[in-house]
Amino acid sequence: MKLLIVVATRAEIAPFLSHFNLPDQPLMETADFDVLVTGVGMVATAFALGQHLDKNKYNRVLNVGIAGSFDRNISLGELVNVSADTFAELGAEDHESFIGIENLGFGKSTYQSTGNKNYNLKTVNAITVNKVHGNADSIAKTQALFAVQTESMEGAAVFYACSIQNISCIQIRAISNYVEPRNRNNWEIGLAVKNLNDWLLSKELSTI
Ligand SMILES: O=C(O)c1cccc(C(=O)CC[C@H]2O[C@@H](n3cnc4c(=O)[nH]cnc43)[C@H](O)[C@@H]2O)c1
Fold first, then answer.
1. Is residue 109 a contact partner of residue 103, using CB atoms and an 8 Å limit?
2. Which residues' Cβ are closer than 6 Å to ligand 1?
3. For the chain, which residues make up each domain, given as ranges?
4. Which residues contact 141 (CB under 8 A, 6 or more apart)?
5. Nearest CA to 148 among 85, 197, 92?
6. pLDDT string in tens for the chain (208-residue length)
């Protein structure tokens, strides 16, 4: 059995894929690891990963990608290890309040990494969203509700699929931007992608 690397877009791990000369297709298989490119967002990720894990066995899943940070103590380009990830929009609005899915009695919204190791990275809690934050009011409301450090559009979906399939799963993200009123000029996608790929290429993948 081997490692499955899950990523939303090919661009986020292009240097890694080039290094191993992997073809431009959603699933890339090697002797030591496979790479699944799911598409952006929790729906695309849960479907692609669920379908794949149903027919293929792995001993570990590694979700990688870029992410936004609420926490200004985390530098742009820095890598973080996400230990818990919450579907932030799952629930109901109740006038000015929000009722989480737990309190509605329909399940749970937070999923954990499993089999985590010490990678010498900051460990953070995250949310997963359908809509990238870019409005001051909604950012303030979200921070008051969840008090997490980072957000992505896929992380909780990967943890969810792995928990159903009982597969060990970790999530490493490189911070490309702060969660703030939208200003695409402030995003450092190139730096985040470089640092993420340098980290991946520095690792003996079988030890992750
Ligand atoms: O142009 C945009 O507005 C834009 C919005 C989200 C993502 C992108 C990407 O190019 C990469 C896709 C990937 O990025 C993750 N991501 C990065 N920053 C954030 C964030 O602040 N909030 C949520 N997700 C973020 C996300 O996981 C996407 O899959 C471009």
1. no
2. 8-9, 40, 65-68, 129, 132, 151-154, 176-177, 179, 184
3. 2-207
4. 98
5. 85
6. 799 999 999 999 999 999 999 999 999 999 999 999 999 999 999 999 999 999 999 999 999 999 999 999 999 999 999 999 999 999 999 999 999 999 999 999 999 999 989 999 999 999 999 999 999 999 999 999 999 999 999 999 999 999 999 999 999 999 999 999 999 999 999 999 999 999 999 999 988 9
Using CA of residue 100, residue 126, residue 153, residue 50, what is the dihedral sign?
A: negative
For position 124, what pLDDT does the model report?
Answer: 98
Residue with tokens 């973080």: 80
Tens digit of each residue's pLDDT (9 = 90 or more) over 46-56? 999 999 999 99
Q: From 1.10.10.10, 3.20.20.70, 3.40.50.1580, 3.30.1020.10, which CATH number describes the 2-207 domain?
A: 3.40.50.1580
- What's this model's pTM, rounded to 2 decimal places? 0.97
Determine the residue type at 61.
Answer: V
- ipTM score of complex: 0.95
31 vs 170: CA distance, rounded Å: 21
Closest CA to 207 of 117, 97, 109, 107: 117
Q: Which amino acid is at 7?
A: V
Nearest CA to ligand 1 atom 11: 66
Pocket test for ligand 1, best of 66, 79, 187 (most atoms within 8 A of CB): 66
